[in-house]
Amino acid sequence: MFDPATLRYDVNGLIPAIAQDAETGEVLMLAWMNAEAVVRTLDSGRVTYWSRSRQALWVKGETSGHVQNLREMRLDCDRDCLLLLIDQTGPACHTNRRSCFYTALRDGDEVEIMAPMPTTA
């Protein structure tokens, strides 16, 4: 049985978690998890992160409705980073974009490569 204590957390007890669309492979976001967030995610199937700014757990989509359902959690070789293969409902980014990685650096310039998703009323 998997033990979250076997992961290598940083000095703050956190581990980076990369959310990737399970169907397309698109990288959607990076957030942080502590051991409790890992356990809650595995138990519920709803991705739970640790908010460094609020110092609290948060379930992705709890207020926005833009939920992440876990298909599979993968550990990297050093056990210090997680890859979450997810089904994303709506945008993953708080800016209302599909992915948090919507800015590219091209020839030294920042280029926005993804517009916000349309809002539904």
Describe, in plain words, how this protein is organized in 3D.
- The chain has one helix spanning 35-44; strands at 15-21, 27-33, 48-51, 56-59, 68-75, 82-88, 103-106, 109-112.
- A four-stranded mixed sheet has the order 2-1-6-5, with helices on one face. Strands 3-4 form a two-stranded antiparallel ribbon.
- A hairpin with a 4-residue loop joins strand 3 (48-51) and strand 4 (56-59).
- The mean pLDDT is 96.
- It has one helix and eight strands, in the order E-E-H-E-E-E-E-E-E.
- It catalyses: 1-(5-phospho-beta-D-ribosyl)-5'-AMP + H2O = 1-(5-phospho-beta-D-ribosyl)-5-[(5-phospho-beta-D-ribosylamino)methylideneamino]imidazole-4-carboxamide; 1-(5-phospho-beta-D-ribosyl)-ATP + H2O = 1-(5-phospho-beta-D-ribosyl)-5'-AMP + diphosphate + H(+).
- One of its GO terms (biological process) is L-histidine biosynthetic process.
- One of its GO terms (cellular component) is cytoplasm.
- Mg(2+) binds at residues 76, 78, 80.
Known CATH architecture? Roll
Task: Kindly report the CATH topology.
Answer: Ubiquitin-like (UB roll)
- What's the helix count? 1
Number of separate strands = 8
Function: Catalyzes the hydrolysis of the adenine ring of phosphoribosyl-AMP.
EC number: 3.5.4.19
Domain Phosphoribosyl-AMP cyclohydrolase: 29-102
Cofactor: Zn(2+); Mg(2+)
Give the arrangement of secondary structure elements.
Elements: E1 15-21, E2 27-33, H1 35-44, E3 48-51, E4 56-59, E5 68-75, E6 82-88, E7 103-106, E8 109-112
Parallel strand pairs: 1-6
Antiparallel strand pairs: 1-2, 3-4, 5-6, 7-8
